[in-house]
């Protein structure tokens, strides 16, 4: 696999995840707006679900960043550019999937209880996801490689 192909795969993974999450969010909002909540929970269960999603968001976002930065620091500097990009791709994938999981859980809780707060948490995590767009310059800075090395 070439370095350019690895860069394309990183961007493809990002595009697919963010696009599908946006579509699911729009469909969820439309469904809840038209039909209401899917399941009626007792007040304590609803509060527990809300708290769980908030705790997951508050711990999952920093955890994904810490894991990614730790994996990037562990990449051997003597590896070829292609090998570095393959390791970066895996670390980036785990970071994006972590954020996607939190987003999906908040959307599912929005579908279940119909609380707009859960949709706001989705929006917060989605913004964090959007800020992680894999620009070539950011990848090169993190891996400490240059354009001619491709």
UniProtKB/TrEMBL annotation:
Keywords in alphabetical order: Membrane, Transmembrane, Transmembrane helix
Positions of transmembrane segments: 12-37, 49-67, 92-113, 119-134
Protein name (Swiss-Prot/TrEMBL): Uncharacterized protein
Species annotation: Carboxylicivirga marina
């Amino acid at each position: 696999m070439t370095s350019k192909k690895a860069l394309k795969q990183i961007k493809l993974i990002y595009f697919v995840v963010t696009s599908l999450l946006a579509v699911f969010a729009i469909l969820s909002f439309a469904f809840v707006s038209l039909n209401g909540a899917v399941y009626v929970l007792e007040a304590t269960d609803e509060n527990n679900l809300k708290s769980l999603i908030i705790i997951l968001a508050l711990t999952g976002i920093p955890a994904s960043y810490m894991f990614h930065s730790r994996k990037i620091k562990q990449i051997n500097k003597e590896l070829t550019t292609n090998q570095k990009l393959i390791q970066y791709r895996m670390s980036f994938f785990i970071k994006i999937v972590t954020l996607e999981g939190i987003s999906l859980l908040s959307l599912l809780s929005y579908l279940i209880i119909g609380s707009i707060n859960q949709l706001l948490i989705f929006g917060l995590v989605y913004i964090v996801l959007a800020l992680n767009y894999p620009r070539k310059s950011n990848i090169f800075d993190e891996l400490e490689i240059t354009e001619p090395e491709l």
